[in-house]
Design a protein that fits this description.
The chain is of the alpha/beta class. It has helices at residues 18-25, 43-49, 63-76, 96-103, 121-137, 157-160, 168-179, 202-217; strands at 5-11, 31-37, 53-57, 81-84, 108-112, 150-153, 184-188. The protein has a 7-stranded mixed sheet with strand order 3-2-1-4-6-5-7, sandwiched between helices.
């Protein structure tokens, strides 16, 4: 019997892209869970129509909370492997097999974006600064601190489990794999920026930096 693979997709007002993301993702996994994080549009409806299991927050609790809801749902469905990807079409589901192949030899795989001219300017420099800070403060070797595309074996979930409800979730996962010496790996991924204004803001970046400093002091 093969391993059960479930994709978890956090989404907030993503009616423009969520249907296609779910449709493509379902080709490579056993189930897709979409966590509608308090959307005011048709995100839930379209995700369900395209075959996803939809879990809905009544209000926007932010990305970290949405990911936790989705991962807890995947655990209840007995997932062996959990894939995390965004609901805005930024990540290509066709790359899921690359993650699964790499995951045979490690516990968690991070998708690393190219920090080139295609990445919006604020995201590019924000990521470079925060990734450099994380290497200094958290002593990690991950090349893309804020990547949202990753895959892991569910057996490590309790060790990487995060308290952050916001975009600090990505950093806290990295902090936890360092703490518990969890084997990890990276693969290069393509990224499509449909909306350059979405994602983490400058204030999110400042908050992430503050949290890294707090974790380092602890």
């Amino acid at each position: 019997m093969g391993k059960k693979i479930i994709a978890v997709i956090p989404a907030f007002n993503e009616e423009k892209y969520i249907g296609e993301v779910v449709k493509e993702t379902r080709q490579y996994v056993d189930e897709v869970i979409v966590v509608d994080d308090g959307s005011s549009d048709k995100t839930s409806q379209l995700a369900g129509e395209f075959g996803a299991i939809v879990l809905k927050h009544k209000i926007n609790l932010k990305k970290g909370a949405a990911l936790k809801t989705g991962c807890e749902g995947a655990k209840l469905l007995n997932a062996d492997i959990i894939i995390l990807l965004d609901g805005d079409g930024q990540h290509d589901p066709k790359e899921i097999p690359l993650f699964l192949k790499k995951l045979k030899h490690t516990e968690i795989v991070f998708g690393v974006r190219n920090f080139n001219k295609e990445m919006p300017l604020n995201s590019r420099y924000g990521n470079i600064i925060l990734t450099t800070l994380s290497k200094i403060l958290l002593k990690n070797k991950i090349s893309d601190l804020l990547t949202g595309y990753k895959a892991f074996n569910t057996r490590i979930y309790n060790k990487i489990l995060w308290d952050s409800s916001d975009y600090s979730v990505e950093t806290e996962i990295i902090k936890n794999i360092k703490k518990y010496k969890i084997p990890c790996s990276e693969i290069r991924i393509k990224t499509i920026y449909n909306d350059p204004y979405k994602g983490s803001s400058i204030s999110d970046g400042v908050n992430i930096a503050i949290n890294m400093a707090k974790w380092r002091l602890k």
